[in-house]
Design a protein that fits this description.
With 512 residues, the chain is of the alpha+beta class. Helices cover 29% and strands 23% of the residues.
């Protein structure tokens, strides 16, 4: 594996005697991981049900290594949303952020959804998850992953951090910023990251990170927690961003992260290394910014307070763990009374009197009697404990909006607010794929349930029509919830023993 020379030079300076061990990891195969979706199944139930070679990931409650030959991406349980395939070290941020049911949570850079779905599982269907992604194409992938995972209480936005901050000042209990970065920790997973790497990219990413983390701090309520993470080793993007945010936001304090044998501490010496580089060649723009902010200066010494502070951060290096690499820092916003921050200048200011707050959207009743009757008729067969006051029907589209509805930001672009239930056509309700995925075993009256090794379950996922004469659903006609081992996959419509396939065309499994 050919790695960028400047990257290797930097890593040798950072790691010293550990450098050779780090370098040898690129000669080894990468590790594969899956995270159990506890919104649908418990870890214990999954271990009994899954036919994979599983080994626990030590820094997670619900993460496992698996063997490449297990091929879990082709298994029906993957399509049922029972797990999410995720690089093992990337599971750590959502694990560390202590989200509780009922809270308002923001995932600021959420695509493709690995961390957002993990945060949603912690919420257990209550509260609100705002999952934001600035890229429109990546936001669509994010939405799909949230739907596959059965998430009902998400608000999927597609906008910039500053526009979000304008709508949600001091709103969220917990915020995750898994920032766009130079991706040095993903070189072994995908060599395209190594080919795209440059010193200039590191500097550009650090600049973006400094901007978006300040906006994130402004959206955090007093007493709330912010988890900053990257999948890079670059100190400009890691310790540099943390030190800058602490300087610009005096209301933030850095917290200890619970330890694990695989963890390494953050280190202020990496910032001193940047400072020496800048003084030598004048090329390190990040070091220049940090020096101007008073974070780096000629008086830095071994006992500088920065050492103790940054040691609270956590690094995962591939030579110390079975994973690729990650960096984390956990902040708490101290209660500052009525004080807020001007994110454009970094100065503390008093909140302006009469400052507008985000307005909640009121739930809309079905548009007409015919729509209401069609929806009520279908929902009679659903036993899920839902609050029917949260159902909203507009232009024939039915939604179940979050209890902490946040979609009131005027002009804020979004893909979805809550759960899309389906469409009402000519007085009849047609349930959506996302509706099926949000149901739990036993919540729909009539089910076609395949065993995981039944060949027909793959045929269903490929979009085929099939016979089910040997199965006995409660009703032998009409809508059926198609399941594998009791867990929903999608809808089918039964007519004379033939199951007409209603599985989402864009989600279908490709035939082998």
């Amino acid at each position: 594996m050919e790695l960028p020379r400047e990257f290797l030079t930097r890593m040798k300076r950072m790691l010293g005697a550990e450098y050779e061990a780090f370098l040898r990891t690129y000669e080894k195969p990468r590790q594969f991981g899956l995270r159990v979706n506890t919104l649908k199944i418990s870890v214990e139930e999954f271990e009994q049900l899954a036919p994979f070679h599983l080994r626990k990931i030590p820094w997670t409650d619900n993460g496992f290594y698996y063997e490449k030959e297990d091929d879990p991406a082709r298994h029906p349980f993957y399509y049922a949303g029972l797990y999410y395939l995720q690089e093992p070290s990337a599971m750590l941020p959502a694990q560390i952020l202590p989200v509780l049911p009922g809270e308002k949570v923001l995932d600021l850079c959420a695509a493709p959804g690995g961390k957002a779905t993990a945060l949603a599982a912690k919420l257990q269907g209550s509260g609100l998850l705002v999952a934001n992604e600035i890229s429109a194409s990546r936001a669509k992938a994010l939405l799909k992953n949230l739907e596959v995972s059965g998430v009902m209480n998400s608000y999927v936005t597609n906008t910039t951090a500053n526009r979000l901050e304008a709508q949600f000042p001091e709103t969220f209990d917990k915020i995750l910023v898994d920032a766009p970065c130079s991706g040095e920790g993903m070189f072994r997973k995908d060599m395209a990251n190594a080919r795209a790497w440059s010193f200039e990219k590191v500097q550009a990413c650090a600049k973006i990170q400094r901007e978006i983390t300040k906006y994130a701090a402004d959206m955090l309520r007093p007493g709330g927690l912010l988890l900053y993470s990257t999948c890079t080793f670059a100190p400009e993007e890691d310790e540099g961003t943390v030190a800058y945010l602490l300087k610009q936001c005096p209301e933030l304090e850095l917290l200890e992260i619970p330890g694990c044998e695989a963890f390494s501490e953050g280190n202020a010496k990496y910032l001193r290394m940047l400072d020496r580089e800048e003084q030598a060649d004048g090329q390190n723009e990040t070091a220049h910014v940090l020096r101007d902010a008073g974070i780096l200066n000629d008086s830095l010494s071994a006992d500088n307070a920065l050492d103790e502070t940054l040691s609270k951060c956590v690094r995962l290096f591939p030579h110390r763990c079975d994973g690729e690499g990650h960096f984390l820092a956990l902040f708490r916003k101290m209660d500052s009374g009525e004080r807020g921050r001007d994110s454009s200048t970094g100065r503390v200011r008093e909140k302006r009197a009469g400052q507008k707050k985000t307005q909640n959207v009121k739930t809309a009743a079905p548009e007409g009697r015919e729509d209401a009757a069609a929806l009520r008729e279908f929902l009679r067969d659903v036993s899920a404990p839902w609050d029917m006051r949260r159902i909203e029907v507009r232009s024939g589209q039915a939604y179940y909006v979050p209890e902490a509805n946040a979609a009131g930001g005027a002009g804020l672009p979004f893909l979805r607010n809550g759960l899309y239930l389906g469409e009402i056509r000519r007085g009849r309700f047609e349930p959506s794929q996302s509706f099926a995925m949000a149901l739990k075993p036993g919540e729909y009256v009539s089910v076609v349930d395949f065993a995981q090794d039944d060949a027909r379950v793959r045929r269903y996922l490929c979009g085929e029509t099939m016979q089910i004469d040997d199965l006995t659903p409660e009703r032998m006609t009409g809508w059926q919830l198609v399941c594998v081992s009791g867990y929903p996959l999608g809808w089918g419509k039964l007519v004379n023993g033939t199951l007409k396939n209603k599985y989402h065309p864009g989600w279908r499994m490709q035939s082998m």
